[in-house]
Amino acid sequence: MPAILDQKKINKTVKIFTVAQFGLIALLVYTAVKFQHHLLAVGRGYRFMNGVVAAFVIQLLLFYPIYRFAAKEAERDFSLVDRELSERESKEFTKKKRWADITKISTMGFYFIFSLAAPADPFILSIIIYSFLLTILTYLQCYSFAVKKLSK
């Protein structure tokens, strides 16, 4: 079987992740400004920084599991660079990749359901959305960092 991954594909993925990070940062700033205006409009502008701090605390709690997950994915990808895989190895790789994708989709689903089930309070929604965007950013940065670390 031909090699599934090579260094070029992984580097291309890192470049795509870098562009996505800039987009997510822009989206994070945009949502922060929108929530700040919305909180000011309802007379609770003082809660804006509380929401930002709460989102960062949540992110600190989630950092290590996200880092471990991203590092395992990077290791899995690097273990296959320029290797010919047998059919069994290819199935094993596909299974691991599928489970990683299911984990990422489940996380996104969790945030989606959580935001739908949360009260319509802009303060609570801001924390959920900030945490969601920061979770994605953290994963992308950790994966890129792990790839750079492994490529040295």
Residues in β-strands, percent:
under 5%
Based on secondary structure, the structural category is mainly alpha
List segments where confidence is low: pLDDT < 50 over at least 5 consecutive residues: none
Q: Tell me how many strands there are.
A: 0
Radius of gyration: 19 Å
Figure out the total of helices: 4
Shape: elongated
Written as H for each helix and E for each strand, in order along the chain, the element string is HHHH
Largest β-sheet summary: none
- Report helical residue fraction: over 70%
The overall average pLDDT, rounded, is: 90
How far is the first residue's CA from the last residue's CA? Answer: 27 Å
Walk me through the structure.
The model has no long low-confidence stretch (mean pLDDT 90). This protein is mainly α. It has helices at residues 7-41, 48-78, 87-117, 122-151. The protein contains four helices and no strands.
